[in-house]
Amino acid sequence: MERRGYSVVEAASGLDALDIVEKNDFDVILMDLSMPRMDGFETTRRMRCGEHPGASLPIFALTAHTARSNIEKCLSAGMNGVLPKPFDSHRADQLLTLINTPMDRSPS
Fold first, then answer.
1. Peptide bond before 102: cis, by omega within 30 degrees of 0?
2. Quick check: 105 pLDDT over 60?
3. What dihedral do alpha carbons 73, 101, 8, 48 form, nearest 10°?
4. What percent of the chain is helix, strand and coil (3-state, nearest 5)?
5. pLDDT tier at 101 (50, 70, 90 boundaries)?
C-alpha cells in the first residue's frame, strides 16, 4: 500500500486500533482477526457503534481463514468484506477497487 502512495499505520491490539482510529483519519481499515486483548470481530463491532469515527470506514478482514462461516462472521461483525492472505500487489489492487466503488448502504 505504501508503494501506491498510502500511509500505513499498524495497531498492536484491537484496543490500540480503537484508540488510533479515534485520533486519526483513515480511508480504509485492514482488520486482523486474531489480535491480543480484543479480536478483530469485537474491534469492528465497537467501531460500528454510535458516533465512533470508524462507524462509516470501509473495514476489510485480512485473513487466511476464508471458510464461508468465517466470512459470514466478518460480515455480521460489520466488516465490508474479506481479503485472503497473503496480501500482495494483486490483493492491494482488489482492495483499491473495492474502496473506490460506491457501496449501496440503503436498507433493502
1. no
2. no
3. -40
4. 45, 10, 45
5. low
Q: What is the DSSP string of 35-47?
A: -SSS-HHHHHHHH
59 C-beta neighbours (distance < 10 Å), count: 23
Is pLDDT above 70 for 106? no
**What single letter denotes the amino acid at residue 67?**
A
* Rounded Cα gap, residues 45 and 55, in angstroms: 9
C-alpha cell at 85: 492472505
Give start and end residues of each alpha helix (H) in 24-80: 40-48, 68-77
Give CA torsion, residues 60, 64, 68, 69, to 10 deg.
Answer: -90
What predicted TM-score, i.e. pTM, was given to this entire model? Answer: 0.82
